[in-house]
Give the backbone structure.
Amino acid sequence: MKVSSNQSFNTVISKAIKLGVILAAIALGGCSSTIDEMGKTVSNFELEPWVKPFERSNLADPIMAVGRNPIALSYAKHVHESREGARGASGSAGGGCGCN
Amino acid sequence: MFNSHNDNSLTSRLGKSPISRICYGFIICVLLMTTMGVYAAVLPDDRSDIMYHKYSGDGVSIDGPSYLLRKKVGNHVSFSANYYVDTVSGASIDVRATASPYQEQRKETSVGVDYLNEKTLLSTGYTNSSENDFEANSVFLGVKQDFFGDLSTVSINWSKGWDEVGVRGDDSFAEEADRQKFGFGWTQVMTKSLIMGFSAEHISDEGYLNNPYRSIRFLDPDSERGFRFTRETYPTTRSSNAYSINANYYLPYRAALYADARIYNDSWGIDANNFKLGYIHPIGGWTIDIFARHYSQESADFYGDLFAREDEFNFMARDKEMSSYSGITAGLHLSYEWQFSQTATFKKSSIHFEYDYMRFDYDNFRDVTAVDAVVGEEPLFGFSAYVLKIYASIWY
């Protein structure tokens, strides 16, 4: 019988990811609704980047870059993929700091 | 020197790779995505890297060089090329159980192009991996888009690979496998000091997916040891899904914490997860990076350490990467960087020394090389390894 500390852990991680997505959606959405004088529901969808370009010095520091040494990153993934049954989703989209 | 078997005996054919052959085609897809796809919608820096790498553990040594070259042409296009060599020697537990040590070489060549148009980055690439009994080719296509004031980056990737599987000493053995990958990524700036990312990837394989050199063992009271070996049999299809999150956090002083976690499952019944926590601290021109990583998985549905008979099931595996096990990795990475004038030919250079310690402990894979052990009650297998990377980088 194959089982399961892993499966319960996976369930917890899965829930954590879902929660993260929901929180991110809320954070990104920043939306709310109000009712105008006519009793009509109006959506206030005000969404603006909350970190301004001049506030991104920390994010632009090379120590924050996931793929700052691509030749070593490739090799590290090669080592893990060769010795582990799991595969895929081992990198993020990268960037996003808008530093350039 | 290592023995070289040219005969067609089973033990000779089993004396092969410590690394699952099925992984190679997949790995080159990963390398393609890694070397060409992890940056935001800006062209990669012009740089060259030269590296010596070594893995040593479980009686196996794998080392060789790797060269990476990147160069922009104009403001919209960047080319990249990577040449990588693995020289494998020794004998892992799988080989020690059934055959003799060996030596071989794998050469991998990748080329790629990135095209930038405003906030959109298109990437494509091709990789070939070649051995004397295995050939893998792969193409990659990806698109990446920055939006929301450049706080968000979305990427979509696709790749397809074709493997040709052979067996040394058996010219009549020729099999094929195809592979497709679909990836999605989202990276989000959360605060002035925190970036988070989410990745999802689906991979599907079809064809000859097992390693022709790996074998199962089954009970045979008539044999001297009470068991015998025969070639594994895997399903001819596999599909997997993996999801990961990662975060980089800039501390109040100049240092950073980073972490990632991944869950994984596939149609073979493997469930896995891993997580990692690291810390980076610059001191002058030096940078210290330390991390710890944990990995664990449950075995494939058709895995067994000891089968009752040779044809007990339609699909049978004893590859230890298909078993239940866990592993830890702890790393110490040091680098030193020199900054030159931005108007000089060479803008910056760095040297790196990276050492990782790895330990794997298996829950249902036994060490059949143990002497005088009762069949099926041999000690569980485990091993330690280290990974060494020494490289230099120069920006121009």
Summary: Chain A touches chain B through 61 residues (CB under 8 Å). The radius of gyration of chain A is 21 Å. The longest helix of chain A spans residues 5-29. The CA atoms of residues 6 and 12 of chain A lie 10 Å apart.
